[in-house]
Amino acid sequence: MGALAWVFIWWLTDAVPLGVASMAPLFLFPAFGISSSDAVAKAYMDDVISLVLGSFILALAIEHYNIHRRLALNITSLFCGDPVRPPLLLLGICGTTMFISMWIHNTPCTVMMMPVATGILQRFPRGQAASSSADAHEVRRFSKAVVLGVMYASTIGGMSTLTGTGANIILVGMWSTYFPEQRPITFSSWMSFGFPVALVLFAALWVTLCLMYCSSNTGRALSAYLDRTHLRRELSLLGPMAFAEKMVLAIFGVCFYILSHYKVVSILFGLLSKYKRSEK
Description:
The protein has 280 residues and is mainly alpha-helical.
């Protein structure tokens, strides 16, 4: 309890940087005889923690190279319609958010997608800039739908996979700790249950937002300020995909394959280790 109180006081008072406080058990536990340094260090590199760390690193790489923005603009321009169809546009924005949130944590996903959503909303008029009060009302309603859709779609997407949110991974760690005799929860088994549920919730979200914030006049109000030309122009400003972007996508694909085909990869690594031992 004394060690926990020590770390808690450091967190509460910001006496040291948060990273230093989080590493305090590495020297506090051995110093007080609570646990050995080897056991504490092993707990810091648990499978669950490594998975969380890896997903955050991948999210930082996607954000750094604007891959999320390129993906969002491509999908949004596909769903925009000509003339603008607000339900389809809303489906594109929310669907992109849900897809990204399936593979990275929903908090960084929301942080990445909100600038994309607000970049689209900034093209709409504000206040007296609208051509009529009716158009201004429709634009405000649709703007609310976009913001709410990004937030809720990010949460729903996080339910689909183990990497979608930290709570999922923590549950897997607790399951393997308290029920070691039971079958482990794998990426594919979680997705086979979570993804259909997430699809149902996403459909309910989209229908609810369309009924509450989209009307027959919304498309007419938005058409004067947003179309595929605007989105394609913004996409062209990003230029062609750089080598670093392609490498990030390749690593993303490898991680997805390993997570979704865990048994196959385990068998391959097992055969490789046996082959190396036979050579020796």
